[in-house]
Design brief:
The complex is a heterodimer of chains A (112) and B (115). Chain A is mainly β and 112 residues long. Chain A contains no helices and eleven strands. In chain A, the strands form two sheets. In chain A, strands 2, 4, 5, 6, 9, 10 and 11 form a seven-stranded mixed β-sheet that branches. With 115 residues, chain B is an all-beta fold. The N and C termini of chain B lie far apart (41 Å). In chain B, β9 and β10 form a beta hairpin. The chains are: A mainly beta (112), B mainly beta (115).
Amino acid sequence: NAGVTQTPKFRVLKTGQSMTLLCAQDMNHEYMYWYRQDPGMGLRLIHYSVGEGTTAKGEVPDGYNVSRLKKQNFLLGLESAAPSQTSVYFCATSNGYSYEQYFGPGTRLTVT
Amino acid sequence: KQEVTQIPAALSVPEGENLVLNCSFTDSAIYNLQWFRQDPGKGLTSLLLIQSSQREQTSGRLNASLDKSSGRSTLYIAASQPGDSATYLCAVTSLDQTGANNLFFGTGTRLTVIP
């Protein structure tokens, strides 16, 4: 039972490059979330999904896109990376907004 | 917009001491409050979840209280140990700017327990 996994763990991009972060869960949770964590700012919600085939914007969605084609996977894409997107990205899952959220180990992304 | 504040930002205590971490939030219309632990370079681990109808939750040496009307929560750690050293994050579930329920985080309290 792996819980919530994220790939890759680390990545360095150049400005303008694109990449996709993968979140996978084996907990059969309906809700999935992408957050970014920056020093002094706490975690902020980027996008989330309340079920397969659905996505919605969070607090800081600009510059990111997401897809939830399968219930167990939630993808976060950066089409044209910018230095401001240097951050640690966390995926989380839950069975609804009133339930506990379970977090993945994070992806550390640096954009130069 | 919901704002979550945690004070102090950092705390050092000798081993064995009892301690209290504080969390405050600006909008009392919350569904629940969750305390997390984060070790350096790691993800978040959920410690306690308090529903809005509850006043407190306990797990081992941890006790979290919630006073929704005043917008406050405390996390009490009894008989602290060096292994408790970590950053503790408070988060509340409430409505965001789109009208959906989401989690709003504080910036955390970094706890160091000195042997």
